Each structure stands twice: as C-alpha cells, then as structure tokens.
Amino acid sequence: MDKSDSGSLDRRGFIKGATAGALAASTTGTIQAQMQDHTDVPSDPALRVKALESLLVEKGLVDPAALDALVDIYENQVGPRNGAQVVARAWADLSYKQRLLEDGAAAIAELGYSGSQGEKLTVVENTPSVHNVIVCTLCSCYPWPLLGLPPTWYKSAAYRSRTIVDPRGVLRELGLELPDDIEVRVWDSNAASRYFVLPGRPAGTESMSENELAALVTRDAMIGVAGVASPSPGEGA
Amino acid sequence: MNSIHDMGGMQGLGELRYEENEPVFHEPWEGRVPAMMSALGLYGGFRVPIESIPAADYLRMSYYERWLVALTEQIIKYELATRTEIESDRPDPASVKATPSLMPAEAREILFRTFQSELEIEVTARFQVGGRVRGRNMHPTTHTRMPRYTRGKTGSVERDRGVFALPDNEVYNLDPRPQHVYLIRFTARELWGEEAPAQDSLYIDMWEDYLEPV
Questions:
Q1: Which CATH architecture has domain A80-223?
Q2: Does the global pTM surpass 0.80?
Q3: Which domains does chain B have, with CATH numbers?
Q4: Of A45, A138, A167, which has the smallest distance from its Cβ to B29's Cβ?
C-alpha cells in the first residue's frame, strides 16, 4: 500500500553517470510543450523508463517490438476520428442513433469499435435543452476505443477538481458559453461505464455525407467541452 | 482513501491549461510506460500505487510519471523484478531469463481486451430504479471508487448497471463481493448548495455497498 516512495525510483547515480548523448536523446522533440505542462525535470523519467525497459528486455519479460506496436496503436490507431465516425453515423441514421443511445457498446461494435475502457459505453446526447460533459474525478477514465488516450488537460487536477462543482465556469474557460437556462449534466466516469457525448448536429449540414460530417466533429465536442460549429461557406456539399 | 487523487469539488488546484494540437505523447518515454504495463499484463492494478503517492509528490508529478511509479510498484509486487534489480539496472545473475508474454502481433488484441466487465451472476438488487438512496458516510483507508463528494448526499437511482465485483476488495484479491452497480443522479444543489443552478445535475455509477436507503 505505501510502496509509493518515489525517492526509491530516483536514479541519481544513473543520471550522474549518464552520457551527454543519453540526455540529448531524451530532450529531443516537443520540449516546449513538455515545459508547459510538466513541471518536473524532463530527463529524469526519460532515463528511468529507458533503464526499466532495458532491464525488462534483459530479463526476457518484454519484447521491445511489442512495445513499439502498442505505442503505434495508441498514437495512430485509436483516436477521436473513430468517435467522429460514430457521431456522423448517428446524425445520418436515426435508427443507428437510437441503438447508440440504448446500448453504446453494441452500436459502436457495428462500426468495428470495441475494447479496453469501452466495455460499458453510455452515450449521452446534447440537445438545445441539455448539455452533457464528461470528467473522471478520481483518475483518467475515458472512452479509449472512440477517442484514444485523453489529453493532458482532461487528466489535470484543475479539470478533475472543478468540472463537477463549476461545470459552466470550466466550459467558459474552454471557450464554451452555455445559456443560463440549459440543463447541464456532468458525468463522473470512474466505475462500470465509460461516457461519450453525442454532440448536436449543426445547422447547414443537411446535405453532407457521413465523411463530411465526421470531419466537423472534434474530440472536445465528444467530451462535451465544445460544440460542433456549422461548416464555413464553401465547405461541404 | 481520502487522498489527493479524490479531488472532485476541490478548488485551488491551479489553472486549466489547454494545449492546441496536443500530441498523444509529449516525449517518447511517456508511451513506453503504458506499453510496458500492457505488455506485462499489469494494466488493471495501477490505481492503488498511484493513489498511494504522497499528495505533494502526486501534484508535482506529470501523469505518466505517476504511471511510472505504478508500473514500478506493480513489477515488484508481482515479482517480475526485484527492487534491487530495478535500482541497479541489472538482472540478478541467479534469475532465469523469461519469455516475453506479449508478441508484437498480439499487441492489438491485448489492448482491446476488456478487463472490468459485468459478471454473469444472479444477485438480488437492494435498490430499484426510481428509488432514493444516500451515499454512505465511509472513510476507508484503502482503495475505493466512491468519491468523497457523494458521501451523505441523497440521489436517485437512474439505471441498474448489472453485477460487478467490488473494486475496493478486488484490487487486494479479497472477496470480490459481486453486487449491483447503479447510475445515480445527484442534483447540483444537493451536492453544492443553493447557489448551484436548479436544473443542473451530476451522474455517477456507484456500487451497492456505497449506498444506503433513504
């Protein structure tokens, strides 16, 4: 239970002995984004992870190619485009929408999506009178098969703590001003079900194809922190 | 447990910072952490070690740093490697080399496997949809999925989710106490007082053991 002594994970000796090359390798890429959202020294966990992976490989416990495959899935094969296809289908096909609202997991399986953290999926519909927003106050529950891994802000202390007590304020900070008379429903997902918001279909999309509709749908709209904007003139059919 | 991870309703935890076009991982090491967890089959047990991180460290660490703590503790707990091996970065010479349990071709399968699913067990439901329930006033010092803001609050049963093992016990390999989980609706005013908008509400799935009749 109290095995969380992070000090024991520190590898000061390793860091001191690490070559400049190893440090350089760990600080390539999006270091500026890292500095914005991560307050700790970035090279420290990078070195610890590298050492841990090496140990596990040496012990024959993991195949680095399997790790590469998993990372590729996280980065490229699950993500909000899946969810956008589900939304577009629901907008285009009312009977599909009914099935989606009744049994989310079965309905997304029709489109080939299922699995980890999607086992029980509750789809909640935004309407002119009801606005839904998803949060996980205890950790980071999120509908992976439809949205991929959650963004940093979703996992942040600020979002997790404040969304349930001041959803309108949090949404305003994220750029979504809700009318006073709309009903706000916050879904705290940390147990048996994952939640997914079916955004309202914007005006001006009546003649659009499913693929054109899907292109309008953002990750944030499916978490409930944004709406879906009408297409700009010239966009769509 | 009433630790920092149970932060719903707290204030003063900093600004909400939104990053445009955020990458899935900011640094390559971040992706390796959940990948190692999946490859080792440790994916279900990360909450207890994360929730046990002292509050000041928890808030200072990034998300994947917390996961790294959990990964390391799980590796030790399940005796995949010893703390000495991890701290020295080398295998115990006496240890026998294993065979990786996950091959690259199986990666997709393992990622899409469900691990917290409904149980096919008949258990009598103590509460009915449409009924009123109250969150029990309990303060376990161990893992629970009952956020503290629900304690003592009265809500309505919106749905019966079916039967699930109680995570409070399951994570410690204790009696899983299969029981119904319910979707509960609390009004914003019940949770946050009269200044909250009258029409707003919060929905959360709760195990039967977290609830009492009103």
A1: Alpha-Beta Complex (3.90)
A2: yes
A3: 28-111 (1.10.472.20), 132-213 (2.30.30.50)
A4: A45
